[in-house]
Structures are given as structure tokens and as C-alpha cells.
């Protein structure tokens, strides 16, 4: 099967009528449609919560008090689950992340900057339907077969790139990290 982009129209023969004319029906291009939304916090292997600070353009895992968690500023995520027109169970479940900070909503995306992939949070909403590839989609997979309550998130546009954290001074900053599919790395282990 050849992967088609949104500009191409796929067709299939549906009927051969008595005048021997072949009639066609349009097929749907690969697309993602929002199915449901989960509301969760994301924890790393150290039980720290992911906190987004758009004013500082940073997302990092932090120790959070119960009082800070109740205020919830930048740490209560909406995980938008998508259905896909193509089924690839091994790829994982397509998801997108958004977070509310004050009265604004921010979505997670990845961008290339100076030859490096960077995780960003941009103001706006995630779309209900995505016609093709998107820099906001990650594939949610179980972390290991024996650890079904923890997950890893692979960037949809670059195979082998996973959400992870990296120590930067006193911060455990959210990054994309290149890993082989069989490699187990605790920095990309996340609980919901």
C-alpha cells in the first residue's frame, strides 16, 4: 500500500454496469479524527509532574505540593485521543496534548530549530480532524510489556523520537530523544 497525501484522491471500482462502463467511488485519505479526551497529569519515573510555563517557554518535570496541584496551573493536561482511517496497532494510539494556563489553552507540538527537534507549547486548540501528518501527534505505547500502567510517546513524524526528560541545571526539561525501538530508557517513562 502506498501512503497518499491529502491532495491525492483514492478511488476504487464499485460497479461494472451493463454498458461495460466501470464506475468508481472515492476513498478517504489517511486522516485522524478526535475520538475522546482524557484529563490527566503526566508523571515521570521520579513521580514529578510535568508543568508548562508558556511565559518562560519551558515545560519541565517538577516536585509539586498538593496545594500547587489543586491550583493546577499548567499541569492538568487534556490528552486528545484520535481514531485513524489506517490501522497500525504496532504504531500505538495517536494522541495530542493540550494544557490550560490561566484563561488560555496551549497545545504541544514539535519543531525543528537549528537542526534539532524542539518540544513547544503554542497558544490554540487541537483540531477535531487532521487530514494527514501533523507535528502535534504522538503515538502512545505501553512502556514495556510488563509495565502496562506506564507509557512512552513516540513523535509521529520522526520514528524513534520519544518524549523524555533531560537534566538541565536544576530542571528536568521535556525533550524529544532519539531511541531505538527496543531500547528501554527510564527518562521516557511516563504515567498518567
From TrEMBL:
Q: Where does the UniProt annotation locate this protein?
A: Cytoplasm; Secreted
**Name of the featured protein:** Interleukin-18
Belongs to which family?
Answer: Belongs to the IL-1 family.
Instruction: Report the source organism.
Output: Peucedramus taeniatus
Q: Where are the transmembrane segments?
A: none
What's the chief localization of this chain?
cytoplasm
Q: Name one GO biological process term.
A: immune response
Assembly and binders: Forms a ternary complex with ligand-binding receptor subunit IL18R1 and signaling receptor subunit IL18RAP at the plasma membrane. Mature IL18 first binds to IL18R1 forming a low affinity binary complex, which then interacts with IL18RAP to form a high affinity ternary complex that signals inside the cell. Interacts with cargo receptor TMED10; the interaction mediates the translocation from the cytoplasm into the ERGIC (endoplasmic reticulum-Golgi intermediate compartment) and thereby secretion.
Q: Which GO terms describe its cellular component?
A: cytoplasm; extracellular space
Q: List UniProt keywords, sorted A-Z.
A: Cytokine, Cytoplasm, Secreted
Gene Ontology MF annotations: cytokine activity
Gene3D superfamilies on file: 2.80.10.50
